TrEMBL record:
InterPro entries: Acyl_CoA_acyltransferase, GNAT_dom
SUPFAM superfamilies cross-referenced by the UniProt entry: Acyl-CoA N-acyltransferases (Nat)
GO MF, one example: acyltransferase activity, transferring groups other than amino-acyl groups
Keyword flag Oxidoreductase: no
Keywords attached to this entry: Acyltransferase, Transferase
Protein name per Swiss-Prot or TrEMBL: Putative acetyltransferase
One Pfam entry name: Acetyltransf_4
Domain N-acetyltransferase as annotated: residue spans: 13-181
Keyword Transferase: yes
Length: 185
């Protein structure tokens, strides 16, 4: 399978395979969501070393880890989001099932970054080792993520009510799923 090349979309967003050098920006983007939102249930942002380990595990499993770049207001290239297919569950029977993660830098939402990341990630998903992609989305503030996943053929398959406690509130999680063997992106 040939790896997709870096492509610039109509919004000027370039999606390419992440490199180790990109992980500092990835960590910075994710830390914002850990510290300021309920989009993730992490309470503490992972360290850069933990991001290196995650990156190695994902890419070592032949799964995509992509970043989106664009030019900022000073014409400097900036990473404005990332996406990857991680492990869904740790048991061998789930080896071809993944959980996606997509995060966009604050201030860049609504500009097509999420769509570009989703398209780039799905284009790179190897159907020989990925069949199912599961999205676990915090329902509080998650309407944009739910809409994004729906646009790319994910269907809602369930909701866990009051499953996570963060920021002094109980949060539902919406589960969405896409079967790569039945749908094209």
């Amino acid at each position: 399978m040939t790896e997709p090349e870096s492509v610039v979309d109509a919004a000027g967003v370039q999606v390419s395979d992440a490199t180790i050098d990109d992980l500092e920006a990835v960590a910075e983007i994710y830390a914002h969501y850990v510290q300021n939102t309920v989009a993730t249930f992490d309470y503490v942002a992972p360290t850069l070393d933990q991001w290196h380990a995650k990156y190695a595990a994902i890419t070592g499993a032949g799964r995509p880890f992509v970043v989106a770049r664009t030019l900022d207001e000073t014409s400097t290239e900036r990473i404005v989001g990332y996406a990857y297919l991680g492990t869904f569950r740790g048991m061998p029977a789930y080896d071809r099932s993944t959980e996606d993660s997509i995060y966009v830098r604050p201030g860049y939402g609504g500009r097509g970054v999420g769509s570009a990341l989703m398209a780039g990630m799905l284009d790179r998903a190897n159907r020989d080792n990925v069949r199912q992609i599961v999205a676990v989305i915090a329902a509080t503030g998650g309407a944009g993520s739910i809409a994004l996943h729906s646009r790319f053929g994910f269907t809602e398959v369930g909701r866990l009510r009051s499953i996570g406690l963060k920021a002094d509130q109980w949060i539902d999680c919406v589960y969405m799923q896409k079967d790569l063997w039945e749908h094209s992106s």
